[in-house]
Amino acid sequence: MSGISKTPEPPYYAVIFSSQRTEGDKAYGRMADKMVELASQQNGFLGVESARDEKLGITVSYWDSLEAIKNWKENSAHKVAQTKGKTDWYKNFSLRVCKVERQDFFEM
């Protein structure tokens, strides 16, 4: 995951996942990569951006509809990752779903 996602003209939806990790990897990195790969294959997926430092991680995924977000949430492999997140990987997290109504991009 690198760079800024090239999303279509709004409206579309953003899922903002902010988290603080527990100590140690515990196979987190491998699962995170797998989830991005799997999400990118889902109908309605538009892109993803992610950043993490030692204290906070933020991942924003973009979707064309609320139905696409719901289908991703219910994906069986994603459900396994959600459970592992609660038991092994996160001290805390928040998830916000937003409708994108306007966007601007700058590029040199």
Automatic annotation (TrEMBL):
The keyword Oxidoreductase applies. Pfam families: ABM. GO terms for molecular function: monooxygenase activity. Residues 12-83 form the ABM domain. Keywords: Monooxygenase, Oxidoreductase. It comes from the Bacteria. InterPro entries: ABM_dom, Dimeric_a/b-barrel, Jasmonate_Hydroxylase-like. Gene3D superfamilies: 3.30.70.100. PANTHER family: ABM DOMAIN-CONTAINING PROTEIN, BLL5343 PROTEIN. This is Antibiotic biosynthesis monooxygenase.
